[in-house]
Structures are given as structure tokens and as C-alpha cells.
Amino acid sequence: MSKTVEPKVEKDVDDIEYNEDAVEKKPTFLETISAVIWSALMFIGIGLYIVLICYKKTRLLMVIYYIWIIYDNVVNKTPIYGRRVEFVRNMKLWKLVRDYFPIRLHKSANLDSNKQYLFGYHPHGIVCISSNIAFSSEALSISKVFPGINIRLATIPINFWVPFWRDYVLMIGYCNCDRKAITGIFKETNHSVVIVIGGANESLYSYPGTYKIILKRRKGFVRIALKNGISLVPVLNFGEVDVFDQIQHKIVTENNTLIKKYLGFRLPTFYGRLKLWIPYSRPINVVTGIPIDCPKIENPTDEDIQKYLDLYIAELQRIWEENKDKYAKNRKTELELVE
Prior knowledge:
With 339 residues, the chain is α/β, with parallel strands linked by helices. It contains 12 helices and 11 strands. This is Diacylglycerol O-acyltransferase.
């Protein structure tokens, strides 16, 4: 008697169970193309602006456009108040990028929709792809995972001065990572903020299997939380460090010293698939921690700040210990605070 073979049903990009783990897979052609497009968006925006400003018929329009950028940043202060467009955040492109790696989100606790939160994200990796997919799009249904929490991802101010690219980052919900800007968000809106604590400098520690983060001397975010009575939520990703390789060279190091001096950050020399900027397909699991409630202290002392930083580090270590053997089986280091 022959057995009935059930047809294999392929999952649609909208049918993902978000409590499932990200595991290594071979990406489809469409997922790969989507990852390539996402990785090149900034370069596409800059290239388009250069072409249009060099073309006589569109030059004046581009000049007017940049005057608008200045007005929008300085007068409207849009990087603080935001210009989210839900249609853009829900685009299928982000779900395809999500499944290219793939990326999955796991939470340790529910959040109170009546509160504001400051999420600290670790590690940065090279370009921090997972934070974009998790918090600046609906690819992982963040609005359903944390209902009622309006989350914005902080980035360096220079991103809001890059033509076309700045309009994209505004539409998906980015905000300025400047301390005054974030304080303004907490005081003048009901938004919560995600800060990649280690910033671009942490990217220099990013090598496959290596979990080194900058945190010991990063106390500004704790000060902001205490001054505003905002709860802190540590977030640790497993796998972001695996999606690019990078090389070190004396010339690169010297150039980075100059870049750090004048721009405030350093540039890693990285490569992925085909030795290009295309990231490797590696699973990334993002785990959010249990919130740390901070009292509102107008002028927190160094002792106050250190106390809550220690609580934050302890929760980050808990996430690591409970998940490392599941999500970082091929790690080369344990979680290490290098600065």
C-alpha cells in the first residue's frame, strides 16, 4: 500500500513564527538581491544626487532640495521629532533582507506601553544590520512584539545631511543620537529610543565569532535615563559579528586616526561575499532583556550612574550566559567589555 506524500508547503515571507530561532540556511536569489540593494542604498542615494546636480536641467532643483534639507534639520528639527512612514517600514524588501541571513527577535519580558524606554544595542558589528531590521522596520513585527511602544533607532548626525539617504532613514524612524536630541525626544514625545552604545568605534573589534563591546566608559546613556526617569533595556545580538570579515593594515590604521580626529569615528576595512560590501548569509538572533527601571534624578551623581550601569551590565551578562550556547556555538571569545 503506497503512502500519501504530503506536498511541501513553502513559507511565505509573512508567515514567519517570531519565536523561532534563526538558523543557517541558503538564501534564495530574491533574498540575495534584496540584501545587495539594502547594502547599497546609501551609495545609490549619493550617486543619484551627484548625477542630478551635474545635469543642467535638474541642478537648480537639487540646490533647492539641499536648502530644504538644511531647513528641515535646523528649523523643523525633523531628526528629533521624526517623519515615520509606515508603508516604507512595512515594505516586503525588509522581510526578504531579514530572511537572507536570517534574523529573528526574542524578548525576555513584555514592556509597559505607558512607559518610555532606552534600549542599548550590542554589539555594533560592521554596519549593524540587525538593529535596522529589528527596530526600523516591521520585518520582525516590532510593533506587535512590543505593542504601544513607538521605537526609534538613533544614528550619527551626518546621516541626516546625506541627500536622499536622509529621507530614507527618516521614513523608517531614525533619530539623531546627539544627547540633546535624545533628551528632547524623551521630554517632547512619547517615543522610545534604541542606541547602539559602542557606536562605529566598536566596529574595529568586529571579527567573526568575537564578542567585544565598548561599554565600561559609555555612561552618557545611563545619565540620560536617570535624568528623565527612563527604563533601560539591554539588547544583545548573536551573529552580527559574523556577517563581514575585515582586514588590518598600517595605512588603514593611520588613516583611521585622522578620520577619528575630525569626524569622531573610525572606518573598518571590511568585505563580505565576493570580497565586496555584500554581507555573508549568517543567522542573527536578537535578544531583548528585562527592563531596568531608573528613578528620575535631576542631577545624578557618579555613584548613581555607576550603580545603574552595573545593573545594566549584569542583565547583559545574563542574556549572554542564557543564550550563548544556543546562538553563539561557534564563538571564539566570551562576551568581553574592552573599553
